[in-house]
Structure prediction request, 172 residues.
Amino acid sequence: MKKEQLGKLIVESEDMMYRVAKTLLYSDADCADAIQEAIVKAFSNLHMLRQDAYAKTWLTRILLNECYAIMRREKRVVSLEEFTREEPAKETEDYSELYEALSHLPETARISVTLYYIEGYSVKEIAKIMDVTESAVKSRLARARSALKDELEGNVRREGRFAAQSRAAGMV
Prediction:
């Protein structure tokens, strides 16, 4: 893949990259930092891409790694005011209830749900991105669907059934 093709892919994947980063990072500034670092690393490591067909998956994996790096760097105590502060949503439609329910899921489930339902990745692609088996991805999606349904119907509190199921399955 040439740098021009990568640039075009990045421009086309701009919204996807933001949504994926936002599933892990709450601050828009952190999301922007992760995206920027991922783009820099993608251009500097373009020679590492083995097949052009997997460029988007490769770019997503780099982005996830950058999000994790930011999370590791910023592990700190957060005041209650900062935690409860909400940033304005970018979309004009109000998905705040869905995003709130998603935020209650464990990180691995949030990523799986975002990649599958919002970004349209296949189970096989998600397994490759997250370096897990396809059955693990399917289990996470099934548990997440159930937990989201309960959460959105108001039947479960923060910890909910998902957390208990996840602990039992060793996901958390």
Remarks:
- The chain is about 70% helix and 0% strand.
